[in-house]
Amino acid sequence: MPQFVQVTLAPSNQTIQVPYGADLKEVLHRFGVEFPCGGRGRCGACRIKVIQGVLPLSQACASILSKEEIDAGWRFACRHRAEQDITFELGQREAPVLTEHGAFHVEARDGTAVVIDLGTTTLVAQLLDLQSGHVLAVETALNPQAVHGADLMTRVDYGLRASGREQLTQSIREKLGELIHGLIALAPSTMDPPGSVLLAGNTVMHHLFCGLDLSPLSQPPFESSQLAARQFTARELGWELPYDPEVAFLPCLGGFVGSDILAGILATQMHDSEELIGFVDLGTNGEIAIGNRHGIFCTSTAAGPAFEAGGIEMGMRAATGAIVEVEKDQEKEVLCHVLGGGQAQGVCGSGLVDAVATGLDLGFISPSGRLRNDHRPFHLKDAVSITQHDIRQLQLAKGAIAAGISILLKEANAGPSDLSAFYLAGAFGNYVKSESARRVGLLPFSQEQIQSAGNTSLHGLKTVIFSETRPDFDPVLEKVRHVSLASDGEFQETFIKKTSFPENERLKD
């Protein structure tokens, strides 16, 4: 039995060496591959086509894929391990790649382009082949600005200091320039360098990247007059790229609701939907939108870093050693899934939500959030436990999101059951189990309504890139109404109410 095997990704021909038996889901997640159902073999979005080597047919593949697809070598990455050298193409790197609402149309043309999701915590960049719709390469990184604050307000405060904004602007421009150069290096040598770069991010990221004044975002009502799309040349940003391509940042929607939510509206086709739908991008800042073609309400609320395991005593990112899933067995014992399969080193955001949901079901945690076992930490696995403080941090985060959803539903004159679907976006939303999110009271929707949408920011950017002509955003923007929670008289009372956990799994409006 070999100690390591080689996995090669086409068409970029990236080859990585991984331990024998490594979970492909854990391997490919580092390369920007998404698993919208959390790797449970339900959605089929992580399709891979085996070119060399063999992957056995799993039950999930057999039940979803057609005979023709199976015979052609298609499998689901989330249901397999690396047990031999293998080469495959990534199906989700081909158009159509959007969401359950449908695919975007590719207007084939020569050249390449780059799309970038500029997040508060993480950065994801993709190089696109404009002829085929293929993603030629993916680069990811942590946002270097995080050294000056994990949450948006801390970063805004730093940006208001002398030379603070310039430092934050310079650091993010330099890092994104590095990612683009990395993409070009990974692409096949026959491909042209990118002719354009398109970005989306929250309002603070928009302002910092574009070098705009942060002071309007530092105090109530947290509104800026500089929300419009911004255009640059690569050279203006300090990027030495062939042909000096155009760089554009999509417009923001208001307050802390950025262009990533505009991209999400485009990705879910909310602006064209007759039915009422909604989505939330969960991170340090929770951005929420609910609406349809007749009108869209959006807002943002400071959730803090708990969903990304920040501020949690044994919190860590979803890396080797992180507890990512927690459940109870029939004997009411706690079972934990650890990334990499080794000893547990900490717990990530999705694992924290799972753990609290499991603790509620087992009676270890009360609906008020109090640990019932003399306030002793709730042991998960090995040396990893969650503390009373950890639970309180989750309560604050989920209470803020749940209150924001409640306020928007009221603005839309709707109840939770009136939505045809509610989408979870972002890295945390991609992996958190919907049943656990419901159990802790984060989401007031039924299991059938909740769907993972992956990275809607990137998906929305692709709808723009692959349009025959750059779309006019005004018709969409005219439908959007930004709701400021800071000036909403009911928000604080609703927030306090939503910090408690449901008595049972039946959620109340």
How does this structure look, described?
The protein contains 14 helices and 24 strands. By secondary structure, it is of the alpha/beta class. Among the domains are: 90 residues, Beta-grasp domain (Ubiquitin-like (UB roll)), CATH 3.10.20; 149 residues, Domain of unknown function (DUF4445) (Nucleotidyltransferase, domain 5, 2-Layer Sandwich), CATH 3.30.420; 73 residues, no CATH class. Helix 7 packs across helix 12 and helix 9 crosses helix 14.
Label this structure with key terms:
alpha/beta, 14 helices, Nucleotidyltransferase, domain 5, 27% helix, 6-stranded mixed beta sheet
What is the structure about, briefly put?
This protein has 509 residues and is α/β, with parallel strands linked by helices.
